[in-house]
Amino acid sequence: MKFENIFGHEAVRKQFDELVKNKRFPHAIMLCGEDGIGKSIVAKEIAAKLLNKTEIKEYADLIEWKILNDKKSISVDQVRKIIEEVNKKPYEGNNKLIVVHDMDYMTIQGQNAFLKTIEEPPLGVYIILLCQSQGRVLDTVRSRCQIYKLNRLDEHEMRKFISGTYNVTNEDEMRTLLAFSDGIPGKVDDFLNDKSLKEIRNMVINAILNIKKLNPKDIVDAANQLSEYKKLWREICNYFVLYIRDALVYKETGNKELLINLDKIEDIKKIASQFSMKQLNRMVEAVNYGQSNLETNVNMPLTYVEMLFKIQEV
């Protein structure tokens, strides 16, 4: 990938360019931002420039570490292997880059074991830590890094990214992708290619359309189906809210041009005709209540059952 094909984060990337150019790049930095925001792309751009390369691709002196497939965190044993790699000499030039993904999922023991290496890596070795939440990273680790936060892209940047990456020219499709990505580039690819998200969208719209017909067993079954997508509960709640939001907008204005889910226009019309403005607003409250419980790790199937019953009772 050429540097000019990277979209967004221009201010912080320009700052990194100056640091590299003036040979003042910190020995350890932490890039923070939501999943899909572009942390790994920015990290690889930094690495390429520190290695005096002209594009992003695999290099012998760019080493990436991720959580192992069968694990939920980066263990202290894996950290010891990272430290071994840090202390090996570069293969090609004078510099070497170590990029650690999901630093906020490194165990406390692992973070403590990594402290000295982060503070004093060998000359020419640069460590880039990627994380979603600083709050899960030890203060002692954060204090040894310069921290940079990557923010969501604005609409102009997202339009450039979507049209440039996916060649989307249809305005209806563009608006749908803008709404579902919410400024996070990685969500565009998920929306277009993730089969699970397409299944969830259909499940959610069907649940809203048929909510009045569902008996208690149907609601429990629907809740269990939603619970199978354990890691996608935010997306599930978001889809509920976006469909209901569209129904509210269409009911009030009758203007389909203002809708997000334009590919579901006929279903949106049916929802708008079935429920009053008051009922639709109470549905949103029910979903927000469910999301609040999910955020605090309340039992997932039980939360969905309660949420669906609240929606049914509006």
From TrEMBL:
GO terms for cellular component: DNA polymerase III complex. Pfam families: DNA_pol3_delta2, DNApol3-delta_C. InterPro entries: DNA_pol_III_delta_C, DNA_Rep/Repair_Clamp_Loader, P-loop_NTPase. It comes from Clostridium acetobutylicum (strain ATCC 824 / DSM 792 / JCM 1419 / IAM 19013 / LMG 5710 / NBRC 13948 / NRRL B-527 / VKM B-1787 / 2291 / W). Its EC number is 2.7.7.7. NCBIfam families: PRK05564.1. GO terms for molecular function: DNA binding; DNA-directed DNA polymerase activity. Keywords: DNA replication, DNA-directed DNA polymerase, Nucleotidyltransferase, Transferase. One of its GO terms (biological process) is DNA-templated DNA replication. The keyword Amino-acid biosynthesis does not apply. Residues 197-312 form the DNA polymerase III delta subunit C-terminal domain. It catalyses: DNA(n) + a 2'-deoxyribonucleoside 5'-triphosphate = DNA(n+1) + diphosphate. This is DNA polymerase III subunit delta'. The lineage of its organism: Bacteria, Bacillati, Bacillota, Clostridia, Eubacteriales.
